TrEMBL record:
Annotated keywords: Coiled coil, Lipid transport, Lipid-binding, Transport
GO cellular component, one term: membrane
Record protein name field: PH domain-containing protein
Record-linked PROSITE patterns: PH_DOMAIN
Molecular function, one GO term: sterol binding
SMART domains: PH (SM00233)
Record's compositionally biased regions (Basic and acidic residues): 644-658
Annotated function: May be involved in the transport of sterols.
Recorded family membership: Belongs to the OSBP family.
Keyword flag Metal-binding: no
Domain PH: residue ranges: 48-170
An example Gene Ontology biological process: lipid transport
């Protein structure tokens, strides 16, 4: 910008040239921007020094705690596997600066180890951490993509690591914040060309306007320097990120987390060193899964470590805190993965078949021995149907949380709602799932739901399917044998087996499924009903009984479920009522005489069915069921050859290739008939083993470790070509 030397001549000016009249300082005032807040003493030195050492990292139940080499430098915590070598005492401190080792083992291993490529990084700017109070050597670090469970060799080592993390993150947090603070502390507001013209219209002389321009230049120069410093700071930060992205990390997740933390609405409070909780979240805890008590003492990266008052009382009744916990669990998923919302468009037009010719030859036979054309199947296997029963697994997440705060009654109410919710997807499902081959498996890893599921067909005659699922603070397992027969106009299916839920605090609930009948096979509209009594037995204070009402021709309220919770003394503590295809309610009042939900008063909602899929097909799959057989190229490379997604007849049916599906189904059924010979010759399941006492099948582990390593030794190619000899 150039200026005229005269006091009254025309001025050549920048568009943002003057200050508003209300903000004009005295002519002799020297405009100086407010200084940025300085980090605490020692912060600069602490941030410049790299910290490294050995920490024990929890991997999984199969491998337990494993030693890893951790290095903290420039606000980035990286870790790698430890391998000895003769490369000298080179540590992972970047930039060749001084490295402070924490722990006695760190000095020994640091001198022997050779540098390794990091297998993981944590950016402290978008992370948080806390200590364990039950174990003085353990602490946790939460990032947008993972949760690290770490343990030191001693209590002093944990203190040293916590102090290093606090120092490193407070330095970078305050430094990145300083630019924003100075901009909001100035009272001056920048004017426009319109304001300058207005000042001239009011008769202000040129010299005063020129002084305004000089003040503006000074202010602008100061702000420009601050912007440049902030820009260089962010360039340095993203340069560090880019280095680690090249090591294979996902840039989009970290970038999204930075955006959320930098520009989200801020909260106010005092700084404290770190946060702790009264109870441990050992294997399944993530950043979003916290109790009411945790919520008052645990903070994310944008808040630094803000102090607040601890909760003074826990939930003591059914209704207390229910909405808080329910909303909390709904928002606890750290990841939102994109999954498909509809099936592929069929490539062929499906042709109908004669029902009567098939049914009349099957009356009285075991359903598992009846060969049906692919027209009667849906593109899912029975293994995948087992996982479909966990569509509402968030109910178990909520049950776990209620138990943690001492509300055992709400816990069993949520468990009962979960047991009923598994039937909701069976409405208007006219087709049967594929009968899996012996040794067929199915995995479901849903990190956005916090669950990991695995199932295997462990026996052909009798047909047995075993499954195991791990969630947020709970495990679910069971095996099931379906006894089913055709009765001309209907099919009756009687499940045989026990389902178990065990929470991390040791409380266990067990139940068996009720009878299912499929009606109107020949005449009328096809539909199914569930009827019988379900007993949910707990090993502590409460048990539950649920009655699934058997349908009748004149029934105005089909699908009705009623029941109650009782304590160990036989006292009824709460009552259920609802429909297995819609919702479930609980009440303190006896609902056994209520004939319709319209008569229900003062009851609270436990569970409600999800909305139907916006992309319906003739199979009438739910939105959740549509995702179960999805197969991406990345997933295909990780699956064993026994996974249901790789079954050719099922895949052809999903793609609408009906002729190929029928051909493959006949081929695989011939192979299926050979399975009894395999069992007679001593075949055993790969991932489950039978309990010698009660005969049930339990997951023996090792699957997820084999998946990580890509080692599928002992897994047969059950869907490939075979010789009948």
């Amino acid at each position: 910008m150039t200026q005229s030397s005269g006091s009254g001549g025309n001025l050549h000016h920048h568009g943002l040239c003057c200050l508003s009249a209300a903000a004009l300082p005295a002519p002799d005032a020297t405009p100086t921007p407010a200084p940025a807040p300085e980090p605490e003493a020692g912060a600069g030195a602490g941030a410049a020094m790299a910290v490294a050492g050995v920490l024990h990292k929890w991997t999984n139940y199969g491998r337990g705690w494993r030693e890893r080499w951790f290095s903290l430098h420039d606000g980035v915590l990286s870790y790698s596997k430890i391998r000895s070598g003769a490369a000298g005492a080179e540590c992972d401190g970047e930039g060749g600066g001084e490295v402070r080792l924490i722990g006695g083992a760190s000095s020994r291993i640091g001198a022997e180890r050779r540098p390794q490529k990091p297998v993981g990084v944590i950016f402290l700017k978008v992370s948080s951490f806390r200590e364990s109070k039950s174990d003085d050597r353990r602490f946790y670090i939460f990032s947008p993509t993972k949760t690290l469970h770490l343990k030191t060799d001693s209590k002093d080592d944990r203190v040293a690591w916590i102090e290093a993390l606090i120092l490193a993150r407070s330095f970078y947090s305050l430094r990145s914040l300083s630019g924003r603070i100075t901009f909001v502390q100035s009272d001056a507001s920048v004017s426009t060309e319109r304001l300058r013209n207005r000042m001239q219209q009011e008769g202000l002389n040129g010299s005063l306007i020129q002084e305004c321009e000089q003040i503006m230049l000074s202010e602008f120069s100061s702000y420009r320097k601050q912007l440049k410093l902030c820009y260089e700071d962010h360039l340095s930060l993203f340069g560090s990120f880019r280095h680690h992205f090249e090591e294979g990390k996902d840039a989009s997740i970290i970038q999204g987390a930075l955006t959320r933390n930098d520009f989200s609405s801020s909260r106010h409070g005092n700084f404290s060193e770190y946060s702790t909780t009264e109870s441990d979240e050992f294997e399944k805890q993530d950043g979003g899964e916290l109790t009411c008590e945790d919520e008052s003492t645990f903070f994310d990266a944008a808040d630094y470590f803000i102090e607040s008052n601890e909760s003074s009382a826990m939930l003591s009744s059914i209704n207390c805190g229910e909405s808080i916990l329910d909303n909390q669990m709904q928002d606890s998923s750290p990841l939102q993965l994109k999954r498909r919302s509809k099936l592929p468009e069929p490539t062929e037009k499906e042709r109908g078949i004669s029902l009567w010719s098939i049914i009349k030859d099957s009356v009285g036979k075991d359903l598992t021995r009846v060969c049906l054309p692919v027209y009667f199947n849906e593109p899912l296997s029975s293994l995948q149907k087992c996982f479909e029963d966990l569509e509402y697994s968030h109910l178990l997440d909520q049950a776990y949380q209620y138990g943690k705060v001492g509300n055992g009654l709400m816990r069993i109410l949520k468990v009962a709602a979960f047991a009923v919710s598994g039937y909701a997807s069976s409405v208007a499902r006219p087709c049967k799932p594929f009968n899996p081959l012996l040794g067929e498996t199915y995995e479901a890893d849903f990190p956005e739901r916090g669950v990991r599921f695995f199932a295997e067909k462990v026996s052909h005659h009798p047909m047995l399917i075993a499954c195991h699922c791990e969630g947020k603070g709970w495990k679910f397992w069971g095996d099931s044998n379906l006894k089913s027969k055709f009765w001309g106009q209907s099919i009756q299916v009687d499940p045989v087996g026990v389902l178990t839920v065990e929470f991390d605090d040791g409380e266990i609930f067990q139940w068996s499924k009720v009878t299912t009948t499929i009606h109107n096979l020949i005449l009328g509209k096809l539909y199914c009903s569930h009827h019988g009594t379900m007993h949910i037995k707990g090993n502590r204070q409460y048990s539950c009984k649920l009655k699934f009402k058997e349908p009748s021709l004149l029934d105005r309220n089909p699908h009705l479920v009623q029941g109650f919770v009782e304590d160990n003394d036989g006292n009824k503590a709460s009552f259920f009522i609802g429909k297995w295809d819609e919702n479930m309610y609980y009440s303190n009042l006896d609902t056994s005489k209520v004939k319709s939900l319209d008569q229900l008063k003062g009851a609270s909602l436990l569970w409600e069915k999800n909305k139907p899929s916006p992309n319906p097909t003739r199979y009438n799959l739910s939105s959740f069921a549509i995702t179960l057989n999805e197969l991406s190229p990345e997933l295909q490379d990780k699956l064993p050859p026994t996974d249901s997604r790789l079954r050719p007849d099922q895949r052809h049916l999903e793609n609408g290739e009906y002729e190929k599906a029928n051909t493959e189904k006949l081929r695989l059924e011939r192979r299926q008939r050979m399975s009894s010979k395999l069992q007679d010759n001593g075949w055993k399941p790969r991932w489950f083993q039978q309990d010698s006492q009660d005969g049930t099948y339990r997951f023996k582990g090792g699957y997820w470790e084999a998946r990580e390593q890509g080692h599928w030794d002992g897994c047969l190619d059950i869907f490939g070509e075979f010789s009948e000899t």
